[in-house]
Amino acid sequence: ILKTARHSGWAALLLSSTAFAQTVPPLTPLPASVKLGKGSFTVANGTGIAVPAGDTAAANAAKLLAAHVKVERGLTLGATGTSGAIRFERDASVQGAEAYRMTVDAKGVRIAASGDHGLLYGAMTLAQLLSPDHGFGKAVKLPALNVEDAPRFGWRGLMLDVARHFQPIEFVYGVVDQMASVKLNTLHLHLTDDQGWRFEVKRYPKLTEIGGWRTPPSTGGAPAPKVGGFYTQEQLKALVAYAAERGVTIVPEIDLPGHAQALVAAYPELGIFGDRPEVSHDWGVNPYLFNPGPKGIAFVRQVLDELMAVFPGTYIHLGGDEAVKDQWERSPEVQAQMQALGIKTENGLQSWMIDQFGAYLEQHGRRLIGWDEILEGGLPPSASVMSWRGEKGAVEAANQGHDVVLSPAPTLYLDSLQSDRRDEPPGRLSIQTLADVYKYEPMPAGIDAAKASHVLGAQANAWSEYLITPYQVQHMLFPRAAAVAEITWSAKDKRDFSSFVTRVQPQIARWRRSGMEVADSAFAVDY
Ligand code: TNX
User: Please, are residues 181 and 515 in contact by the beta-carbon 8 Å criterion?
Assistant: First the structure.
């Protein structure tokens, strides 16, 4: 059925038919409550926006509304001032930092919130209503309605792996824009891996000079040119500020002690045995580990100092995944360190290391999050857990009183294909359809009711071994990112996949107009 589902002129449908009660406006994520009223209001070129005097967050929400509507609908809204038919208001009775109320009646549109992000999300809801997939450049007749809305979870995320295949910073800006448009608020950047180190560290320039570049296998004749790149701190600070205006917090990841080959290539003295590998040019689990001796601990603290100065968000991700401990087992130096610390297993040493950094981050008012392997040597009190090997790690950690984020493979792994179509761009062979992502429930069974608040939310991860170009990453992200948004924002008992599809399809045109590639193939599956 969904192959043919098409949404044409939802506003006309709402205004003219008797199907009012059944027809939900094409909003995704689905708001907590949408009630239709009587009458309508037409938004046209020149419709003005009013914000409270001196309210910079409201002015920002107004600016973003106008920007989205311009690009995605072709309408130029009027100036922002103290009067206008679209009004942003502060209202303390709308409770919750991200909550908002939007009312459309014959006089205009009112967006009310107590928090800055509530105003922003009201603006994004209105932008979606104003960008149906027909009539570009034309006025939009909005039916009278009342929307009351607030999110279910506080961590609504995507992860971009810019380590395996580096992406230009402009690409990340575009992702932030469209994350905000579906109320996703956390962008996790996987900044380091065996194949590349992407974060400029002023104290350790070789991390990017050497670690930021790799030589692909030669195809014969001359060696292939190096590929890679990195972000300067200045670029990242600008990105962080841009994302903050859009309610998006960036969580940077430095992956340790495994997935550290680019680091060891740049500074062999921070590895084991002084090995000097190349920056890796193939995928999988590599043997080169970071050395957690005193030099290494001091090094990471200095990297964290620079990282914290660029990324002001609470969470810093320190990896911890897939560190096969062979090098630690064979290193007399590491074994001596373990003995001196009274630590019996290599996993125990990893936990000790994580705790060193977790405590350091805590001293600076931050929190450490790591992949679920960090549970294996005993979870340090300072750590939160991102569960990728299913949900087991999340259940265990939450029940121990730690905060957790769900990003289980393969369901929330967006490097998986989304259909079996032959023209699907490359990815991992597993198929995770739009429906698979949508049907994922972020609150795992097995978490004690009293610990449920430790589930911060969920995120989907776009690992990029097979995603080379921005086009390919975007194709994997959209429309599945909208499903991630809905499972983390909307109430569980309101979720309905076929309703979601009718609401998400009208978004495709506006995403495309904003320059975002979207996978049509997501809709070419028989659900
Ligand atoms: C496992 S998920 C990894 C990544 C890979 C991913 C997909 C995780 C924490 N580690 O290094 O990119 O599988 O192949």
Answer: no
Q: Among all residues, which ones are annotated catalytic?
A: 193, 259, 322
**CB-based contacts of 200, cutoff 8 Å, min separation 6:** 207, 208, 230, 231, 232, 233, 236
- Nearest atom in ligand 1 to the alpha carbon of residue 463 is 12
Write down the pLDDT at residue 171: 98
- Most distant CA pair in the chain, distance: 78
| pLDDT tens digits, 65-77 | 999 999 999 999 9
- At the top level of CATH, the class of 31-149 is alpha beta
Whole-number average pLDDT of the chain = 94
CB 438 less than 6 A from any atom of ligand 1: no
Ligand 1 pocket residue status of 171, Cβ below 6 Å: no
Closest Cα to atom 4, ligand 1: which residue? 463
Domain 155-523, CATH class in plain words? alpha beta
DSSP bridge pairs for 43? 140
**Where exactly does CATH 3.20.20.80 map onto the chain?**
155-523
Domain with CATH 3.30.379.10 in the chain: 31-149
For CA atoms 431, 432, 433, 439, give the dihedral sign: positive
Specify the residue with its C-alpha closest to ligand 1, atom 5: 463
If residue 356 lies in a helix (H) or strand (E), which one and from where to where? helix 346-363
Over residues 12-35, the pLDDT tens digits come to: 544 443 333 346 799 999 999 999
- Distance in Å, CA 463 to ligand 1 centroid: 7
Provide mean pLDDT across the span 428-452: 96
Ligand 1 nearest atom to the CA of residue 389, by list position: 2
Name 410's Cβ contacts closer than 8 Å, sequence gap at least 6: 416, 428, 430, 432
CA of 293 to the centre of ligand 1 (A): 26
* Interface pTM, i.e. ipTM: 0.95
* 161 alpha carbon – ligand 1 mean position (Å): 10
**Using a 6 Å cutoff on CB, does residue 466 contact ligand 1?**
no
- Identify the bridge partners of residue 160 per DSSP, sorted by sequence position: 189, 462
Closest atom of ligand 1 to 164 CA is 12
Q: Does the structure show a pLDDT above 80 at 10? A: no
Look at residue 422 in the predicted model and tell me its pLDDT: 87
For ligand 1, atom 10: residue with the closest CA: 321
Residue range 370-389: average pLDDT?
95
In ligand 1, the atom with minimum distance to the C-alpha of 371 is 9
